Amino acid sequence: MTVTVAAAQYPIDRFRYFDDFVAKASRWVKDAADRGADLLVFPEYGGMELTSLLPEAVIGDLSAQLEALQPLRDDALAVWRRLAMQHEVTLLAPSLPWRLADGRYVNRAWLITPDGRLGHQDKQIMTRFENDEWGVSAGDGLRLFDTPAGRLGVLICYDSEFPDLARALVEAGADLLLVPSCTDTPAGYHRVRLSAQARAIEQQVAIVHAPTVGEALWSPAVDINTGHAAIYTPCDHGFPPDGILTRGEDATPGWQLARLDLPLIRALREQGQVNNYHDWALQTQRLTLGVEAMRLTEE
Fold first, then answer.
1. C-alpha dihedral sign at 64, 59, 191, 213
2. What whole-number distance in Å separates Cα of residue 197 and Cα of residue 205?
3. Which helix (H) or strand (E) is 214 found in, with range?
4. DSSP run (H or E) holding 195
5. DSSP code of residue 31
6. Are 153 and 169 in contact (CB under 8 A)?
7. What is the pLDDT of residues 37-84, one digit of tens each?
8. Category of 26 on φ-ψ map: left (φ > 0), alpha (ψ -120 to 50) or beta
9. Would strands 96-99 and 90-92 be described as parallel, antiparallel, or unpaired?
10. Quick check: helix, strand or coil at residue 244?
11. Whole-angstrom Cα distance, residue 255 to residue 168?
12. Cβ–Cβ < 8 Å for 163, 177
C-alpha cells in the first residue's frame, strides 16, 4: 500500500476566541487533504496555543496553565476528530498536557482515523524541563495503531532518541513511525532529527517528523520553536542516498508531503543492501563477549 503523508511545520499562534483555533485547524487540515494527503502529522505541544485563550495571569504561570487548559481539551479534540472525518484522513493531533484521574499530567497525542476512531500515545521519557520545571509525567507504555494509513507507532520528541522504543514498535509491526516534536534550540532540533534518521536506518522504516516553528514569546512553555518538518527513509534501494525524502528548507509554516510505498520499505528488511533490522540481535551476542581492556604494545 502507498500513502501520502504530510508533516507539519506548525506555528504556535495566539487566539482571541476558540473559533480562531477552529478556523486555523480547518485551514491546515483542508490544505493537506486538498493536496492528496492520507496521513497528517501535527507536532508535540502544538496544543499549547490553546493557553492563549486563558487569562493573562494564567498564561504566564507554568503550573496554573496545566489545570486551566483542561476544560478546553475535549472541545479541541472534538474539532480534530470532526476534521479527520470530514476530510477522510488519518490525523495525529497536536499533543498537549492531559490530566489523568490520579492528578498527574502526561504529554498526550491523539490519533484519529477517517471514521472517527480515537487512540492516544503518551510521551514515555521526559525532558529535564518537563520533569524539573513543568510537572509533566511519563505515560504508561507504547501503542501500535491499525489505521487506513498503515500500522503506526508514535515516538514523541525525546522518545525518538532512545533506540529500544523504536525497536519495540517495529517488532510489534509498525509500518511507519511518527515523531511529533517541540524544540527551542537548534541543538534540540538536531538531536531529534539525527535520532529520527538513525531510527530509520536501524529499523529499516520510514519516519515522519513534525515540529513546532516560530516564536510565541507570550508562552513560557513554548516561547521559541526550532525545526524543519521532514520524512526520512532508510538509505537503501529506491530511496535517497541520504535518507531524506523531503525536508523543509526554512521555518516557514506549512506542510512537507511525500508518497511512501510501505511494502517497498518493509521489503528492505529482507532485500536491502544491509541487514540492520535482522542484525539487531547481534549486538547482544557481541556484548556477551565483554569488553577487553587492551594495552598497546610496540611491534
1. positive
2. 10
3. strand 206-215
4. helix 186-203
5. H
6. yes
7. 999 999 999 999 999 999 999 999 999 999 999 999 999 999 999 999
8. alpha
9. unpaired
10. strand
11. 29
12. no
